[in-house]
């Protein structure tokens, strides 16, 4: 009977530990809105250069859990991207969704230029530190001549 109790305790502990080891903290929609608002406030109060510096810091406050903030100008050129600095200076207007094979930025930037200053849009993207392509629900907020983005990842699609 004593060995059964120990077996049960060990089994429960191993399940608990394995869940901790494999669980990944996921960003929330609320955090994305908050982080974009913080970056937009920095742009307004301290200028674009300060915001860009902070967003480009891969160990800073704008890279968290399983996501990050990035900044584009109104022509869809990346000006800040902490986890993937290779995108900085690249225009993504023609970038195609890996699933639908359609570009998603042209329609979004038409909305922004027509006066939609914030909102959500969906596309598919590679999740940092994971294999494959996932759904992504992304929040955007315009801050002067820049647009600040952050999104949450959903299911793996390929």
From TrEMBL:
Q: Which UniProt keywords apply?
A: Signal
| Top-level taxon of the source organism | Bacteria
What residue stretches are annotated with the Double Cache domain? 65-156
Q: Which residues form the signal peptide?
A: 1-23
GO CC terms of this entry: plasma membrane
Protein name per Swiss-Prot or TrEMBL: Putative Cache, type 2 domain protein
Question: Origin organism of this chain?
Answer: Desulfamplus magnetovallimortis
């Amino acid at each position: 009977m004593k060995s059964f109790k120990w077996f049960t305790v060990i089994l429960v502990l191993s399940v608990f530990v394995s869940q901790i080891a494999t669980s990944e903290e996921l960003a929330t929609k609320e955090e994305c809105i908050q982080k974009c608002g913080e970056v937009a406030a920095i742009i307004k109060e301290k200028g674009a250069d300060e915001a860009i510096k902070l967003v480009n810091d891969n160990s800073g406050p704008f890279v968290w859990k399983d996501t990050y903030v990035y900044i584009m100008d109104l022509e869809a050129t990346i000006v800040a991207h902490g986890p993937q600095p290779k995108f900085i200076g690249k225009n993504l207007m023609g970038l195609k969704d890996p699933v639908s094979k359609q570009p998603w930025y042209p329609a979004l930037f038409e909305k922004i230029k027509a006066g939609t200053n914030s909102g959500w849009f969906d596309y598919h993207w590679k999740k940092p530190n994971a294999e494959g392509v996932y759904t992504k629900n992304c929040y955007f907020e315009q801050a002067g001549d820049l647009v600040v983005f952050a999104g949450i990842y959903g299911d793996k699609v390929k």
